[in-house]
């Protein structure tokens, strides 16, 4: 579906005409990310991150397939083959650093993409399905990243695998059976490493599939925008190409500068030195921490230190960690406010900037820090806030909040007036177009 | 679905007998779908089962430990199912310390006698795997920190175990696991 004023694809040459009849792939691309897709004219740079995430996925698949040509998933040689890639394989160091930092870059981009969705309520009707598919993609990304981190078979790889699969051991009765089934043994070993490699190779293509569904679902209502006002007419939109291909191209350039600054000048800044020690099942690193992008969730896991009624502390931590993401699935129905954009929601804005964001930042800090009574206490407080925010605060805000006046249309938000507006121009205090 | 089947097969309706009886076509339909469904489920069995521990992993699931040279106060670190296992010879003082604790004061109440084999209460066999998040506790090697209770100390999150390997302080929910084991002779233990 598209807006009625969308530009139509008209093949001009013999070959493109032939293709359009037999397999209209160019038409599909034209309508998806070409001039045939009308997009709100007021998108800010926050709307770059979907395209950037797609770029990261391609980057990870390309570098990953190359690495798989040189890596050997066997506990006897996995660590050595990783070093072989670093030292012997032509440009192997670049491929591995690009892949390892690419994972971090992917998560940075996706977190900003999710942040955008949360602030501008992109999850609200009619875009619930886009959001739900996005959460699925995020879960798949977490699984993929975790299994990829195990592959070099260093100390952090091994102990990360042990702790994370140990989470399943917290499930009553069947937990230990599930854990042994996942690992194919009683502790991480060759069976686990092999299957992690197999799945680490497979899941990115599953992600690519869900990304196609995500974009498909997006093209039914069309992109959201910073005002949250739906597109009404042609003057509200611009064709994706050349306007947003150009804007995304600029954003991609900025992204690449930052990304390659890491790849070339501080490739290990986000890693952990312990992972350059080969895996040793008999010796535990002093502080087992996951990669930075899992820190907030790890903090939630570790926040539970006492049994909760009859539920053991360890199981509570595991349940809370999974629930912290699963709650996102219910977000479109928890936030009932008809206003989408945080720009026009004064109360929502306060809790977002002074509640949710600091909570996630502090949880992130606590998840990466050495465990102490202070970090545990902070984790407990902000875990409580995190769940309160989604389950209690957001529904209440959407009932009692009085939103600020909104522009009649996207055109008015951009130009300051819209001839179609019955009420005439009105002041928009927080117009995002000026921001 | 039945309606659709009829609609789809209007041409064939002529050869089907009238009335409510089971039609030949319905029978074939149900039988075929059932067979395919059972076949599909049967395929799942090997696909799921291949993930479980393979024969060679299970073959390594017992370990024999020779304790002839183990002196009181010392411990041996062995490997059982790819995980560390601690075999410790307790001193008289350590046995006394473990037996003097009131069970009510324990998070996971077990006596030393329950955690050892009769006749060999001075030999404590436990997994070297912290019950919190699976780290290897210190205390089996010479000069390692044994924690406040003289047993084992987990460096990851500070769990403290006493001389019977019981959790006394810190986040671990249960005592260090005692694997199944038996004395083959006075100096040979078979674990698993």
Structural class of chain B: alpha+beta
Structural class, judged by helices and strands of chain A? mainly alpha
Mean pLDDT of chain B: 84
What overall geometry of chain B do the principal axes of the alpha carbons give?
A: elongated
Unreliable sequence segments of chain B: none
Subcellular location (chain B): Cell membrane
Pfam families (chain B): Rieske, UCR_Fe-S_N
Main location (chain B): membrane
Domain Rieske (chain B): 87-190
Question: Could you write a compact summary of the structure shown?
Answer:
The complex is a heterodimer of chains A (about 425) and B (about 190). Chain A has about 425 residues and is mostly helical. Chain A has 16 helices and two strands.
Describe the structure.
The complex is a heterodimer of chains A (435) and B (192). Chain A is an all-alpha fold and 435 residues long. Chain A folds into two domains: 42-218 and 243-278, Cytochrome Bc1 Complex, Chain C, CATH 1.20.810; 289-404, no CATH class. Helices cover 60% and strands 1% of the residues of chain A. The two termini of chain A are 31 Å apart. Chain B has two domains: 2-49; 57-191, Rieske [2Fe-2S] iron-sulphur domain (Rieske Iron-sulfur Protein), CATH 2.102.10.10. In chain B, 24% of the residues lie in helices and 21% in strands. Chain B contains four helices and nine strands, in the order αααβββαββββββ. In chain B, the strands form three sheets. In chain B, strands 1-9-8 form a three-stranded antiparallel β-sheet, with no helix packed on it. The radius of gyration of chain B is 30 Å and the shape is elongated. The model of chain B has no long low-confidence stretch (mean pLDDT 84). The interface between A and B is medium-sized, with 27 and 25 residues. Chain B: It is found in: Cell membrane. Chain B: It catalyses: a quinol + 2 Fe(III)-[cytochrome c](out) = a quinone + 2 Fe(II)-[cytochrome c](out) + 2 H(+)(out). Chain B: Its main location: membrane.
